[in-house]
Amino acid sequence: MRLTILGAGAVGPAAAALAVSRGHSVVLWSPRGGGTHGIGATLTVEGALAGTARIEVAVDVGRALAGAEAVLVSVPPHALGPVLRRVAPMLPAGVPVLLAPGHSLAPLLLDRLMAMRGAACPVGAMAVPPVVASRTGPDAVRIQAVREQVEIGAVPAGRAPDLARLCAGLFGVPFAPLSDVLGAALATAEPVWQAALAMGNLTRIEGAEPWDVHGQMTPAVCRVMERLDAERVALAAAHGHAVPTLAAQLHRAGGVKQASLHEMARALEVARGATPGPMGLDAAHLAECVTYGLALWLRLAAAKGVAMPLTAASVAVLEAMWGATLTGDDLLEGLDLGALPRLLRDGHPR
Fold this sequence. Notes:
It is built from 14 helices and twelve strands.
């Protein structure tokens, strides 16, 4: 199968290497060009997968999409909206588009953009990417882990089993279909983890002091995480989804025995060594955990009448810390939350 990957940070090249290892051909495109600078015909891979992967680098998105049988989009949430708006007019109708991960309700944005041109394609939203990876050089990537399982939702919702089978064939990882893409938006506890650590380590972050994220998961910070996570889990249940807790996700991703968050953090610190925390409030992922995580959850909670007092307080505190409004989710553009159940099920009308 010919797979086009849009996004060349760490996940895109790592997913490319994984797909190539399974006999697929891959075209890689970087929205700004920097991610593919230095990549020739091959990519060097180390870690959970080792060797070289032969890929094609496209400098033009139109050429990247030509002949694509599936498209994977893996870019940060702040870049996802601009990328989807840029490529939607060029996407071949009917070709599956996979978002890894499906930040916020981006699948509905892409579905709306396709509907505006009278076209349709199944859109998949992964809860997390199939790999955990980092770039080690211009043409090199390290795959720290291949996921044991990835949840995926779809627009329209009934296409999730088809896309789960497609992804399993592409990446060799079991994919579990969700009842809709809202499940993917609520499945990850990353915003909980990031928000609690940011609130507990503000002076370290602002002062650009070196610090270790697992070492700073103190009992008090972990209590905040647990309460925030309980609100997320309750919100998911109100929308008909059973999502894994933060502890379950740390167990799955880190391979440590499930226990209290503080105990798991100590085990991760021993197993992985130092994991540097952000140094500076300009770290984009800190603000994004509010914009595309906590603030989104509050909108979804309001639609169901679910109380999330600690989540609301955390958003207020984090906005005060940044001195800016962090709730401008561009991935919700044009979305009618009142029609959300129908849109999740069927997508936008053509």
